[in-house]
User: Fold these one by one.
Assistant:
Number 1:
Amino acid sequence: MNDIVEGLLHALRLIVTLDGDLVEITLRSLRVTLTATAIASLIALPLGALLAVRRFRFRRATIAILNALMGLPPVVVGLIVYILFSRSGPFGVLGLLFTPTAMIIAQVIIIVPLITSIAHQALRDIWAEYHDLLISLGASGRQRVATLIWDGRRSLITAGLAGFGRGIGEVGAIMVVGGNIDHVTRVLTTAIALETGRGDFALALGLGFVLIGLAVSVNLIIHSLSGTEVGSRW
């Protein structure tokens, strides 16, 4: 029991004193996940709006595939990215394996289906309300998508934050493509796994507290935005 208490106190001390390793790992985690979330949002939000507005032959199949990809095991994504960017892979010449860029690519693949699905569901409801109005005004397809994205911006921000929450807690794919290299690709989740294996529970707990803090903050923001969204309709 004393060891646990000492570990907790040491972990809090690392956080309060802004330990160098803790800050470095946290900033790298934020940089990787925020970049991945931004790229994924640029892909997923227009795609979600397109699926809500347009009717095409394989629309239902596309939606079903995206929903299925939400449950894709991250370690499988990491394996696919590893194969693609390994020396013998088709993109091996780029030399991106075991770099933050490879980690971002893996997170983008993981996050895109989630953001697209949430965005599609939110924009589908808005489209049901605006359908007749936009058609009567003669709005083009691009104008319809732009209108939906603007009016559904709170829900889309929520979708982006959900993607961030998924990415910041990812460990399997990141470990495979990043390699958990100190001062290069080590992030919160992989560092926690490493320090726990080493027996350095103080640093692992400190990293864990930071990760929990980030996850809770994201969930609070999502809850706040969702509440504002609901309140604005009444």
Number 2:
Amino acid sequence: MAQAKKPTRAAAKGRRGQQTGRIKERIMEERTKEVRILLVSLIDTFVILVVFLFMTYSAEGDIMSVAPDLKLPASESIKNPVQSVIVAVTNKHILVEGSAVCTTEDALNDQDLVIDNLLVEMTRIRRIKEAIAEQDPTRPFKGEVTIQGDKLITFDLLTRVMYTCGRSKYGNIALAVLRKQ
């Protein structure tokens, strides 16, 4: 019986080259296969997302934000707030539209009922709003102000803030409270 010849190095290299070529072809076939997206699952996901957005969307929006160190008193009021100038009175500061105007200590130590820094800022804002009203008659100046007073401030301080707002021609005063549940 004759024995098979041992393959030469060149023949072995050729076979390995053919095998790696077949492997490369197989990989390319797998890569070029058509990828199908499951549209039903994708549509379901988008429908759930849209329903979630509609359920969490508020048509009224947030009219005002409360200062971080402010605790509003609770009330049974059901009237919604209107968009107006916001004066926040915390235990430490008096803020107009989020900017500190003066400290509550300075406001209480003044002998006069008018808080000078608050009067200056409210007058400046009033002049801007009146200038806008001259240019756009659909947006008249109504003199509306919302006071966010911390539930621990003194009545004297609240009275001074309200008096100062009135002196700067903001006579339509509302007090912000939390609605009791």
Number 3:
Amino acid sequence: MPKKRKGFIKPFFKRGFLFLEIIVLLPLLILLLTNQVIRLSVEDHLFDSIDKIPYNRVALVLGTSHRVKNGGPNPYFHHRMQAAADLYHNHKVSYLLLSGDNSTPYYNEPGQMRQALLALGVPAEAIYKDHAGLRTLDSVLRAQKVFGQDSITIVSQKFHNQRAIYIAKHHGIQATAYNAADTPRHRNDRTRVREWFAKANVFWDILINKQPLELDEAITIG
């Protein structure tokens, strides 16, 4: 009897360990695979050079807070604004659509973006604001559904542009992206980790056909 009991327990624990390995490794595999699919499929749409990026009538500038938690300036924000201004001043776009979170009167990403771009010499008549860019998906789809743009240049950091371009491509938007300057890796580890999960979440949004939280009446740019 003891021998039979031992022979039963050993396979049981083997199956248990195999099950635990699957539970741990499968999500990691999915995370890796989804990130690689996005990165590899959009590479040809990303530009670091202002001279090489093609002209688009409208640039979609993706929002973020102009300050970090400790109150200091957010380098992601300022690099994006500089990149957007460079596109405009080099005649690579004619209009800038600033899309960000303005869900409360006390938090206004598009308003801060507009102020920064005016200070960089972009004229007010070239700037449009989208106050309901609560997520990257909302910003990209509202550019098409609300502002009527089927061809855009997206402005953000490269890791963010990859995701935005993939969303745009899936929804039939012709998009290129201009990569704003990044920050040193040791300063943005938390942001990088979040981005891995955000890229994986893109496929869930596609699966359930996720749409923007808000859709307003059509707004004409220009």
